[in-house]
Design a protein that fits this description.
Layout lengths: L1 E4 L11 H8 L2 E4 L8 E2 L7 H8 L9 E9 L2 E7 L8 E3 L3 H16 L25 H5 L18 H7 L6 H6 L15 H15 L5 H17 L8 E2 L13 E4 H12 L13 H7 L14 E2 L18 E5 L3 E6 L4 E8 L3 H16 L4
Antiparallel strand pairs: 1-2, 3-5, 4-5, 4-12, 6-8, 7-8, 9-10, 10-11, 11-12
């Protein structure tokens, strides 16, 4: 049996949110379908039996529910496995993996000259003379050092800013909710992970594309940009974007793709912004920038996690190459990219308990460790 979502709308990235959703009736339980066949090919570096043995622990229940697992090596898929009821055509929620997609889109706007990393971002709510938020830069929003007073997770859960922004009083206009927050710290001085920062970025992108406040116009403008600059050229055919009622892309949490397209996105990052045909989609220098450690948290770059031991890492420092980086989402979503191993690993599923998430990380570290550096 499995929790299955009734609607793709109104899911968030705050810890423990599944219990809230189940109580609210946003999830139902249905019987599991027969398990689909797994594709475990192996390659010259890792044989199929060893690969299968490393993947099995992700599906034995101790790691929660792994819904999809893909391993790409040297650009070829060497393993693909799904839980019952899921398959290659199933679109799965990004959770905070969407933040890395948002950062890539921001990079395209920087390359176009629409935005600048170290200039104060043009947020109308911060434009009054003397407003200290008017000094916040694009770089600080990307590095999670904006200084805004946003509580990603707090108790009681219903009062956490992320939950309020995604589900309750902030849900109609998520960008405005995030932009209304006062400063808690001087911009650039403190690392504080915040889905609100990501919503400010997506609102900012939309306002670079249209001056209209009409939600339909805003949605169309952003969707044309996503389709023309990323979805079509990177061949992410399943990429589906959600918008709030104000027409702002919910780029911090609510994107959807098949596991194969998440793997293609990981390969785009591994190949320094080049698509499957070898053409440059995202500037190579932007991918380098995304992987540059924040001065306030060595384990975080620009909306991307790095495999560094900083006391606040979402990856597995010491158990995988230091050059490994990843897109990480709520309850155990991972795109892991190891350039030194020519490797991309995607794990999607639900692991709400801390011990389950630790089991996921342990299994992924062992899986990555099979491949030579």
């Amino acid at each position: 049996m499995r929790l299955e979502r009734k609607s793709v709308k109104r899911l968030g990235a705050a810890g423990g949110i599944l219990a809230m959703l189940a109580a609210a009736g946003l999830w139902t339980v249905r019987a599991a379908a027969p398990e689909p066949p797994a594709h475990i090919a192996g390659d010259a570096d890792v044989d199929a039996a060893a690969l299968r043995a490393a993947i099995d622990p992700l599906f034995d229940g101790k790691a929660g529910e792994t819904r999809a697992l893909i391993v790409m090596h040297d650009g070829e898929m060497v393993a693909e496995r799904y839980a019952p009821g899921f398959g290659p055509r199933t679109k799965l929620l990004s959770w905070s993996i969407g933040k890395s997609v948002t950062a890539v889109l921001i990079g395209l706007m920087v390359a176009d000259g629409r935005l600048a990393l170290d200039s104060p971002v043009p947020v109308p709510a911060w434009s009054q003379p003397g407003d200290p938020r008017g000094r916040i830069t694009l770089r600080q929003l990307l590095a999670m050092t904006s200084g805004l007073d946003h509580a990603e997770d707090s108790e009681p859960l219903a009062q956490a800013d992320t939950v309020r922004m995604l589900f309750t009083d902030g849900a109609q206009n998520m960008g405005a909710f995030a932009e209304a927050k006062p400063l808690a710290h001087r911009p650039g001085s403190v690392f504080s992970y915040s889905t609100g920062n990501s919503m400010i970025l997506t609102d900012l992108m939309t306002r670079m594309l249209t001056s209209s406040d009409d939600p339909d116009v805003r949605r169309r403008a952003m969707q044309m940009f996503v389709d023309g600059r990323l979805k079509i050229p990177a061949r992410l055919q399943s990429l589906t974007v959600e918008y709030d009622a104000a027409g702002t892309m919910i780029g911090g949490s609510f994107l959807h793709m098949t596991a194969r397209d998440y793997a293609r996105f990981g390969e785009l990052l591994r190949n320094q912004g080049r698509g499957v045909a070898g053409h440059q989609i995202v500037p190579e220098k932007w991918i380098d920038y995304m992987r540059t450690p924040s001065p306030r948290n060595a384990a975080y770059g620009a909306h991307l996690w790095l495999n560094r031991d900083s006391g606040e890492s979402a990856l597995m420092p010491g158990r995988a190459p230091g050059s490994l980086f990843g897109c990480v989402g709520h309850d155990g979503q991972y795109i892991l990219v190891s350039p030194a191993q020519r490797l991309t690993v995607v794990r999607l599923g639900m692991s709400p308990a801390k011990e389950e998430r630790e089991a996921v990380k342990d299994a992924l570290a062992k899986l990555v460790g099979l491949f030579p550096r």
